[in-house]
Specification:
Number of helices: 12
Distance between the termini: 46 Å
Order of helices and strands: HEHEHHEHEHEHEHEHEHHH
Helix content: 40-55%
Number of strands: 8
């Protein structure tokens, strides 16, 4: 099976698919190396890796380029954040085609206005239900591979309340999307209510510390009925913390020797990115170039 078919099979299980966040090829390789069955290309993490906040400043072409890097680096399925589709329904058609072209297994599309904001920031606005339905219809119709996953996200909880978010999610489910993502439920009771209101369709939950949603263990989320859990921030938060530590030490001591045992070795760093494989290709195909004429 290819990555998209694998993703669809994973959704059929009565088990939670945990997809840690990545934002480039290196972080994606680490997710795969850790043994996870899928990776999540976080739009917020991509934005922050560019040194800008997650408030709709990143363009589609920039995210597509990053998605291509991530997909080419790993074999496991990649679920990508496609924001609002970067515009209206016709913009979304091109967005679907581009994510599909670079090999992403699934995307989620949200009902915020363009430009969007992080789902756990205040000041969001959402488009009408009717407009979002048309956008999802366009997304479903424009995919050339039926295995390409379309995940419908609603941000209405933080704008119009929980009941409207559920109403929208039910409408999205009727369109035939592959999964539903109700963003930013604000209590454990709301988290538990979403699967009760939406039986029979895979549900995605966004898990990270510091947002509006309680951070529950994977076992509890699986028991509630969720089928995908994305962890968009953990890898990047860990990276920021570690880089700050080593940079502070270098600034203070003029050397990083005191932290050397906690740092990845030179050899291990190159192993992660597959240097041995590339050197084998060099030995196999470039040896003739070293022969004398």
């Amino acid at each position: 099976m290819n990555a998209r078919q694998t993703f669809k099979e994973l959704l059929r299980r009565e088990k939670l698919l945990v997809a840690p966040g990545c934002f480039d090829g290196l972080s994606a390789r680490l997710v795969e190396e850790a043994g996870f069955a899928a990776a999540y290309l976080s739009g917020g993490a991509v934005a922050r890796s560019m040194g800008i906040p997650d408030i709709g400043l990143v363009t589609m072409s920039e995210v597509i380029e990053r998605a291509a890097h991530v997909v080419s680096a790993i074999k496991i399925p990649v679920i990508a954040d496609a924001d609002t589709g970067y515009g209206n329904a016709t913009n979304l058609v091109r967005t679907v085609r581009e994510f599909e072209r670079v090999g992403v297994a699934a995307i989620h599309i949200e009902d915020q206005i363009t430009p969007k904001r992080c789902g756990h920031l205040d000041g969001k606005e959402v488009i009408s239900l009717a407009e979002m339905e048309k956008k999802l219809e366009a997304a479903i119709a424009s995919r050339s591979d039926p295995a390409f996953g379309i995940i419908a996200r609603t941000d209405a909880r933080g704008v119009h309340g929980f009941d409207d978010a559920i109403r929208r999610a039910k409408a999205f489910a009727k369109l035939g999307v592959d999964a539903i993502f109700v963003e930013a439920p604000q209590s454990e009771a709301e988290l538990a209510e979403i699967p009760r209101q939406l039986p029979g369709i895979p549900l995605l939950v966004n898990v990270f510390k510091g947002g509006k949603t309680p951070m529950l263990p994977v076992e509890r989320l699986e028991q509630m009925g969720y089928r995908i859990a994305i962890y968009p921030s953990e890898t990047q938060r860990a990276g920021i913390h570690a880089m700050r530590r080593v940079l502070a030490l270098l600034k203070r001591a003029g050397t990083t020797e005191a932290m050397d045992e906690t740092l990845t070795t030179f050899k291990e760093r190159d192993k992660i990115v597959g240097l041995d494989d590339w050197q084998e290709l060099e030995r196999r195909y470039l040896a003739v170039s070293n022969e004398k004429p």
